[in-house]
Amino acid sequence: MPERAPGAELSIAILSDTAVAGAAGSITALTSALACEFAGFKDVTLYHDSSDVLADHSIELSPNASRVLRALKVLDNTLAHSFEPQFIHQRSYRTGFQLAITALGAMAEGRYNAPFLHVQSSALTDVLTAAAKARGIKLSSGNPLQGLQQINTPLTAPNRSDNTHATTIELSFSASANASANSAEPNPSERATHDVVLVADDPQQTVRRLSNAEALRQTKTSLTHWRGSTPYDELPPGAFAAVLTQWVGPTQHMSYHFTASGELLEFNALVHHPSESEGESGTHTKQDLQNAFADWHPSLSALIESATSLDQTPIISTESVERLVHGSVAFLGSSCHSLMPHLPQQQALGIEDAWVISRMLEQWEDQPADGLLEYERYRLPRARRMTANAAARASQLCDTRPFETWRRNMGMTFGSRFLPELAMQKNDWLYGYDAVNGFE
How far is CA 101 from CA 55, 260, 274, in A? Predict the structure, then answer.
């Protein structure tokens, strides 16, 4: 465990528009604030709306993410709200035949020295917020990022000469933005000055536009991400095991697991709606979801039918970016990378980013712009690999070609039953990534 660093003088602002981006951005923002405070920075301000009611969904905290939370001393409180699956079961979409079993639980923790968890986003947000308040991190009230009017930096301020020693950034908020909860913070209706700005999410690309950073290139896809939950009492007895279950089939994808309390079974469905690519509305009904899985195993239809909560999000494809840093403004997590949800690592990617950037700022305190460039150098290859793997996984899991699906299923079955060690090794690059003790 790294020792706590002495005090540092940099003023760090963290921006997050939780009203639009939701839990992923909030978790990245809070983790970034805690990591910077842990690195010894005393002037950390988090500009986000801590009062927003976020959609409450279970998120995956694989070992590459949970070890960061342990380093930040918030893992124990997180465990109290978590479900720790012992296995991943992969099943064939039509018959329910068990293709593969992957060990998690104690075996995964022994292999990666960190647990594999699922936790409700609201619970994790509450744990991180409580830790941030306890450690004196300044948390704004209202949603000041929505009132952000201008970002003046040595690169963007029109009235400044190109002075390499002038590294401060001025954030200008509209007068309608709410005042900060802590009177020691700058009033968001005025100019706030910081040395470094970290952007945890930027769904409207406001920060990119105001800082003259390259815009993200995004494309609407034909995929919709459905999330739902069904009370345990509404499920057929014994039909659903307390494991993480993934259903493999053409075009669509379904996974589910119990929440920490065991009272709900939460499912994620990725559905191909051809009309989406033709520009039609992205709003669909429960019947549309039922139709998408009509020829799948009947237990899935029963699960969807008995769902008491259900929402949907269109999947937007984002091209990989070339830069994570623009002057003294750095982008983290979902503000610069978007993974296909077939690999549920979006939150983990942001948590990794948060730890690494705090280490780089600690090591380059006197030259923070150089520290941000080092963060970019370390994180771009990792993010690109995760992005490519997510896309490949989506293609493999939802393949419609008969021979390729047969070969995939045979590979899963053979590897799980006869080469389990080799099967686990395939995920070592992902779960074994250790941002805390070295992130080459």
Answer: 31, 21, 32
User: Which residue segment(s) compose the domain that 109 sits in?
Assistant: 82-119+218-318+396-430
Which CATH number characterizes residue 45's domain?
Answer: 3.50.50.60
CATH number, domain with residue 268: 3.30.9.30
The torsion angle over the Cα atoms of residues 189, 191, 195 and 200, rounded to 10 degrees, is 30
Q: Are residues 15 and 148 in the same domain?
A: yes
pLDDT digits (tens, 9 = 90+) for 69-96: 999 999 999 999 999 999 999 999 999 9
> Cβ atoms within 10 A of the Cβ of 174, count?
13
Residue 189 burial (10 A CB sphere; 0-12, 13-18, 19+): middle
- Reported as half-sphere exposure (CB side, CA atoms, 13 A), residue 346 has a value of 23
- State both tokens at 337: 């990378």
Q: Angle at Cα 243 formed by Cα 25 and Cα 290, nearest 5°?
A: 75
Residue 152 lies in a domain: yes
Q: How many CB atoms lie within 10 A of CB 227?
A: 19
User: What Cα–Cα distance (Å) separates residue 290 from each residue in 11, 47, 130, 132, 143?
Assistant: 51, 41, 40, 42, 37
Instruction: Tell me the pLDDT of the chain averaged across its residues.
Output: 84
- pTM for the model: 0.89
Q: Hey, which bits of 339-381 come out as E strands?
A: none
Q: Quick one: 124 and 112 in the same domain? A: no
For residues 405 and 386, state if they share a domain.
no
Q: How many domains does the chain have?
A: 2
